[in-house]
Amino acid sequence: MGNEMHIFIKMLVVFILILIASRSVGRLCTYVGQPRVLGEMLAGVILGPTLFGAVFPGLYANLFDADIKNILYMFSHLGLALYMFLVGIEVNFKKYDKKFYRNSAKLSLSGFLVPFVAGIALAFILKDAFFQGDNFLHFALFIAIAVSMTAFPMLARILQEKNMMKTKIGGITLLSASVIDVLGWLSLAAVIALVETNSLKGGGVTFLGTIIFVIVLFKVCKPLLERIFVSVVETGKMHQGLLALILVLVLSAAAFTDYIGVYSVFGGFMMGLIMPKNKVFEQQVRSKLEDIVVVFLVPIFFTYSGINTQFTTLNVSLLIMFLIILIFSSISKYASCLITMRAAGFGWRESSGVGSLMNARGLMELIVLNVGLTYNIISQDLFSLMVWMAIITTAMALPAYHFSEKFKFKKALPSNTITIK
């Protein structure tokens, strides 16, 4: 009992540190024009061996021992499942007009496929330095997915904080980012299935299970849930019984997808996708869950990622590799989105602005990277380099967007008019 109480007190101290660090660094970031969530990402790295562990090695080792790391792992994955559920609720493909959707579809495909190909090329460059498994295909596909990701929830928070949600740039960027997230998670599910079974046959079984799971959700569960939650839409209130049902569904979906060999956050995300697409319902769910998830659980995930961000050695070779990763990731995403928007008839400034915003990878990238580390697809050093790539590309998004607004191109086509219903 004494040992259990000691672990409990230590856990509470760690939670207090996480809350103080995430809120403090997040507030500092808002002062310099960056979104709060970037500060929360940095706070996780600060609490890891990069800073806190280097300055106070004894205290760090005592606080973040194996027991606490296991607790952080479990809380962070619970938080991710709930967070991805909230992200899924926000995704609604029916609220835009056809022209808007066509442009968004083109942007989504180019913003995912071009970086995906660039990621495969990057994997060949990184192979000698970081590949440590038996199957290079797994490694290459994973790097391709990691390079392709765009953080839909991160963009939503950035655009909301900067009052850009109602602008045409904000709308097309958000919809395209949400499609890229869906493509990314489906691709990641397939790769995890291959890694788990280590065979095309086994991977096919797991992937087939995932497809059946998705079909059952949309064809069976979705209609039922719309009937069950009709009272929330009519009355504007959600009682505790319905909230408990939502939690049971999210946790069940997370557990099932983990069981069939797909990461648990995919289950949470898909459960969010099938929820009623109604503003009243969304507001009720978010009012019940969002604060505790965003303020408490997500920073725990950032900290768990931070304590895994460390280098066994830091040398010129690693720095060169980091620059290569950053260049491949940034240019492939920016250039593909810029060219696609320009070809669709948008002005250079708008096209450049969208390309800049789509480079924000944020939380989605960290989730993907943690999957790679959990399944031993990538090494510790490569994980750390990719985490810093995610932080820097996210930090660059808004400044690059503002630069695009101010930059004077010689010729700019008239902007397309985008209508959101």
DSSP strand (E) fraction? under 5%
How much helicity do the residues have?
Answer: over 70%
* Number of helical segments with 4 or more residues: 18
Radius of gyration from the alpha-carbon trace, in angstroms: 21 Å
Kindly report the CATH topology. Na+/H+ antiporter like fold
Kindly give the count of domains. Answer: 1
Polypeptide structure, described:
Its main location: membrane. One of its GO terms (cellular component) is membrane. InterPro entries: Cation/H_exchanger_TM, CPA2_transporter, Na+/solute_symporter_sf. GO terms for molecular function: antiporter activity. This protein is mainly α and 421 residues long. The chain has one domain (3-406): Up-down Bundle (Na+/H+ antiporter like fold), CATH 1.20.1530.20. It is built from 18 helices and no strands. Helix 6 (98-130) crosses helix 7 and helix 12 (240-259) packs across helix 13 (264-273). The longest helix has 33 residues, at 98-130. It is globular, with a radius of gyration of 21 Å. Residues 411-421 have low confidence and may be disordered.
Q: What's the quick description here?
A:
The chain has helices at 2-31, 36-46, 52-55, 57-63, 66-90, 98-130, 136-148, 152-161, 168-197, 200-228, 230-235, 240-259, 264-273, 279-307, 316-343, 348-357, 362-374, 380-406. With 421 residues, it is mainly α. Residues 411-421 have low confidence and may be disordered.
Features:
421 residues, Na+/H+ antiporter like fold, 80% helix, 0% strand, globular
Summarize the SSE layout with pairings:
Elements lengths: L1 H30 L4 H11 L5 H4 L1 H7 L2 H25 L7 H33 L5 H13 L3 H10 L6 H30 L2 H29 L1 H6 L4 H20 L4 H10 L5 H29 L8 H28 L4 H10 L4 H13 L5 H27 L15
Helix pairs in contact: 1-2, 1-14, 2-14, 5-12, 5-13, 5-14, 6-7, 6-9, 6-15, 7-9, 7-17, 8-9, 9-10, 9-16, 12-13, 15-16, 15-18, 16-18, 17-18
